[in-house]
Amino acid sequence: MNETINAMRSPMEVLQMRPVASDDYGVDDHASDLVVHRRAVRIGASGLLFAEGHIGEVLDPSPSLHAVPNTTEWFSGVVNIRGNIVPVFNIALLLNQQVNSPKNSRLFVYGKGDAMAAFYMDDLPKKLSLDSKQLLSQSPLETTLDQYVQATYILGDVIWLDMDMEAMFSGLAGRMKST
Length: 179
Hints:
Blueprint: H1 2-8, H2 11-16, H3 22-25, E1 35-43, E2 46-51, E3 56-59, E4 75-81, E5 84-89, H4 91-94, E6 106-110, E7 117-121, E8 126-131, E9 135-136, E10 149-155, E11 158-163, H5 165-178
Parallel strand pairs: 2-11, 5-7
Antiparallel strand pairs: 1-2, 1-8, 3-6, 4-5, 6-7, 9-10, 10-11
């Protein structure tokens, strides 16, 4: 029966579905079989999730970082990637995570062209498939990035934040302009 119901939905409807925690909003017959596929990047004890179709690359070793004076501590500086000046953020600080030395971390570049931004990560990106059983009704993390979190999942001992990456980087850029 669920196969029939899912067959009637358009691909865009399925991609835009958000699982609902049954203890908050009543039982959702479709939430238990909903699987969300995301790319995952681990940062400290938590990680970021983003849609599979987005462009990203790993730079290891990281290119030379150029510090920018009089900026916030979560802004590490800029790097030159194929002629593009790319901002580098220390997302671990924004997630209230233990900060590893950037020398021991890989750089993940998200986006392309003028819309690139980078941050340090602890492990190589991977693909995760998550279902409603792993969905948390409320994030146990309190971060300065909460407004960009679309959903929170737990898998093993890792809290995964499904982020609106474009909005996050745009918001961080705006915060830098105001300081």
